[in-house]
Amino acid sequence: ATQQEEVGTSLGIRLAHKGDKFLVKRKNISVYVRDMTIASAHEQSRDWFELFYDDQYSPPKAFVLVLQWMVCSSVHLTSFGQKFARIAEDNGFRLVRMPIAQLFPQPAPRGVWSADM
């Protein structure tokens, strides 16, 4: 791939301009509130959360970003969410909240697939 086809960022996310690359892998990073530039952040904070994300944005496929293992106050998550939504909107994107079951569905119960139904 040439430099024009893929653009890297600090998280290692690539943009496939042509939309012809569909192999997407998941990455993750621990985000510490003390290192963030949000109003509620402070140097002594021990709050953190885990951010899981796709390594590539390949339109028209959706880009998946998941917050998990939240070990922090809701004020920090709210501040982060608002700032991230502003960044997304400023760049022509929109954040859409989805229940985790839509991203990672549970297997159907055995009775759903039986011949008795």
What does this structure look like?
- The structure is a single chain.
- The chain is of the alpha+beta class and 117 residues long.
- Helices cover 18% and strands 21% of the residues.
- It is built from two helices and five strands, in the order βββββαα.
- The longest helix has 17 residues, at 74-90.
- The radius of gyration is 18 Å and the shape is globular.
- The chain starts with 13 loop residues before the first strand and ends in a 14-residue tail after the last helix.
- The mean pLDDT is 76
SSE order, one letter for each helix or strand: EEEEEHH
Task: Characterize the biggest β-sheet.
Answer: 3 strands, antiparallel
Sheet/helix structural class: alpha+beta
Placed side by side, the strands forming the largest sheet appear as 2-3-5
How far do the termini sit from each other? Answer: 50 Å
